[in-house]
């Protein structure tokens, strides 16, 4: 076979390759002028704990890094280019009814191979509601929590995570679904 004859097989095989997210993130940080590649957070002493009761009896909260839509911040819809103006810097809470208008144009993701057209990929609120109705999870908390994506492990550990934990404790949350974008 010639290389032309193998082209359809080659194309098919390469379409299934994973996106090298970690490599791309490290290279991106170096391109920004940082002295070293991005270092992913690693916690040997994780605050995660087993559930104390079955999930179907738990009050569950949704925690997301999606940003509330801000009409003054420019394009933010599905397929929008990266938009730093849409970033937020503080933890927020928002009712889950009616479903909030949250977007992800403020985060870097592979816009060539994916889009933000399916909100359930970054805010699975509809799926959470279905799980609650079906009895797979207990009560869905009436508010969700938003955590900023500031690229700072220190701020996340010292400010944002303790604030989310405090909110969860105040509202009697037994389990949280963390949806990072």
Protein model, in words:
The protein is α/β, with parallel strands linked by helices. The chain has 2 domains: 40 residues, no CATH class; 125 residues, no CATH class. The protein contains 4 helices and 6 strands. The chain has a 4-stranded mixed β-sheet, with helices on one face. A two-stranded antiparallel sheet has the order 2-4. The radius of gyration is 20 Å and the shape is globular. The model has no long low-confidence stretch (mean pLDDT 86).
SSE order and pairing:
Layout: H1 3-15, H2 21-31, E1 60-64, E2 67-68, E3 92-95, E4 102-103, H3 125-133, E5 143-146, H4 153-170, E6 175-179
Parallel strand pairs: 1-5, 1-6
Antiparallel strand pairs: 2-4, 3-5
Total of DSSP H or I helical runs spanning 4+ residues: 4
Beta-strand percentage range: 5-15%
Task: Give the number of domains.
Answer: 2
- How many strands in all? 6
Residue share in helix: 25-40%
N/C terminus separation? 44 Å
Sheet with most strands: strand arrangement: 3-5-1-6
The Rg value, from CA coordinates, equals 20 Å
Q: Structural class of the helices, strands and pairings?
A: alpha/beta
N-to-C SSE string, H for helix and E for strand: HHEEEEHEHE
Please outline the major beta sheet: 4 strands, mixed
- Taking pLDDT < 50 over at least 5 consecutive residues as the criterion, the unreliable ranges are none
Average pLDDT over all residues: 86
């Amino acid at each position: 076979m010639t290389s032309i004859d193998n082209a359809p097989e080659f194309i098919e095989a390469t379409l299934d390759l994973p996106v090298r997210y970690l490599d791309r993130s490290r290279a991106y940080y170096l391109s920004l002028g940082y002295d070293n590649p991005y270092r992913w957070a690693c916690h040997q002493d994780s605050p995660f704990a087993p559930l104390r009761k079955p999930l179907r009896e738990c009050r569950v909260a949704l925690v997301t890094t999606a940003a509330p839509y801000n009409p003054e911040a420019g394009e933010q819809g599905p397929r929008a280019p990266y938009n730093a103006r849409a970033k937020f810097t503080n933890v927020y809470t928002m009712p889950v009814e009616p479903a909030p208008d949250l977007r992800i144009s403020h985060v870097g993701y592979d816009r060539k191979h994916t889009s933000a057209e399916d909100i359930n990929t970054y805010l699975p609120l509809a799926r959470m509601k279905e799980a609650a109705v079906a009895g797979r999870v207990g009560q869905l908390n009436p508010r969700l929590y938003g955590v900023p994506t500031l690229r700072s492990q220190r701020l996340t550990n010292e400010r944002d995570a303790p604030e989310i934990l405090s909110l969860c404790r105040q509202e009697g949350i037994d389990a949280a679904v963390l949806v990072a974008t």
